[in-house]
Amino acid sequence: MPGHEPPHKEELTQRPRAAATPGGITRRGFLKGAGVTAAGTALLEGVQVFSREAAAATPENVKEYGPEPVTVALLVNGKEHAVEVEPRTTLAEALRIQLNMTGTKISCDRGSCSSCTVLLDKTPVNSCMTLAIDAIGHHVTTIEGITEDERMHPLQAAFVRHDAMQCGFCTPGMVMSCAALLERNPHPTEDDVRHAVSGNLCRCGTYPKVFAATLDAAGQMASKV
Question: What is the distance between the alpha carbons of residues 124 and 107, in angstroms, rounded to a whole number?
Fold first, then answer.
């Protein structure tokens, strides 16, 4: 507009400053620093309280292991084995390296594919996510342990008849998951089998044949009862 001059660039970029304290610290900086200090103190006190409570809640009869290797007894496939493991050793590593039971496969090594499935007290578990020391006092069953008198388990035989494997890397875990299913449910439906192997990954895509083999094995086992 005539007679009205636009503000200078310097005027547009200037912002009001926070008032400074005599020591050269701004009021805003002082408040921020005080807040951080208070939060840090509260966090530290919380950690100390948690540590004290955790220590008080730990039972006196709990045995601690490590960090050096220790000798433990594992009950695997009905036999007790003395193995020397570090506390960080997984059950899969103990089975494969210490006991040479290589039927249990390690694929992803992070609990995603279930190729390392074994039974812990008849419950399927990922042995790559289970510490060997956590298996102490439990019954561990591997793929080597479901045979009888060196004869294949009916489920293993059904997998062969139905060609329910290709590369075979996931097969031991698949068999163990299905064996656990037949143990608790002798007359499963296909939906039951699908649910039982829902955590077992097969890159070759043999799922339909796994379902058929498991249902076939269930029928074979039921006819012998």
Answer: 17
Contacts for 192 with CB less than 8 Å, ≥ 6 apart: 181, 185
Q: Find residue 90's DSSP bridge partners.
A: 131
User: Residues with Cβ < 8 Å from 123, sequence gap 6 or more?
Assistant: 180
Token reading at 16? 């009001």
- What does the block give as tokens for 18? 């926070």
* Backbone φ and ψ of 199, nearest 5°: -95, -5
Tokens read off for 187? 């007359």
Neighbours of 21 (CB within 10 A): 11
Helix, strand, coil shares of the chain, percent, nearest 5, are 45, 15, 40
Cα–Cα distance for residue pair 124/179, rounded to 1 Å? 9
Tell me the whole-structure pTM to 2 decimals.
0.72
CATH second-level architecture of 146-225? Orthogonal Bundle (1.10)
Q: How many CA atoms lie within 13 A of 45 on its CB side?
A: 6
- Count of residues making up the chain: 225
Contacting residues for 193 by C-beta, under 8 A, at least 6 apart: 178, 181, 210, 211, 214, 215
Q: Does residue 80 contact residue 102 with C-beta atoms inside 8 Å?
A: no
Q: What is the pLDDT of residue 38?
A: 58
If you average pLDDT over residues 145-158, what whole number do you get?
Answer: 92
13 has a pLDDT exceeding 60 = no
Please name the amino acid found at residue 106: I
pLDDT tens digits for range 26-48: 766 655 665 655 555 555 565 55
Task: Count other Cβ atoms within 10 Å, centred on residue 180.
Answer: 20
Looking at residues 183-194, what average pLDDT do you find?
97
